């Protein structure tokens, strides 16, 4: 397993990590198999989405804030970050990408994103590459 650290700079942020994952796959020498990206945090997640237009990330975070607002009086979690826990569960804590001919099988406009919902923080991303 490989682990890398990233620092986020705002409460809600999507950080594209495709290049880090791609580099780890290349360094592994695995040409056929799968890579799992896992985020071990309850207030952060990982997803695959469009990486060509930065407005997609903006719109994505805006929509999540509308669906799961921060300032709601009905939240009971004492730390005050219930919205971040909900958003992280909506995104999920892992994603898997096929490796074919040594490359990630992603669509033309797809990228892997670390999703921060309780930043800024220093976070860990675990990457497991499996041949097969």
What does this entry look like structurally?
- The protein has three helices and eight strands; from the N terminus they run ββαββααββββ.
- With about 130 residues, it is α+β, with helices and mostly antiparallel strands.
- The chain has one domain (about 1-130): Sandwich (Jelly Rolls).
- The protein has a five-stranded antiparallel beta sheet with strand order 1-8-3-5-6, covered by helices on one side. Strands 2-7-4 form a three-stranded antiparallel beta sheet, sandwiched between helices.
- The longest helix has 14 residues, at about 55-65.
- It is elongated.
- The two termini are about 15 Å apart.
Q: What percent strand?
A: 35-45%
- Strand order across the largest sheet: 1-8-3-5-6
Major sheet details:
5 strands, antiparallel
Uncertain residue ranges: none
How many distinct beta strands?
Answer: 8
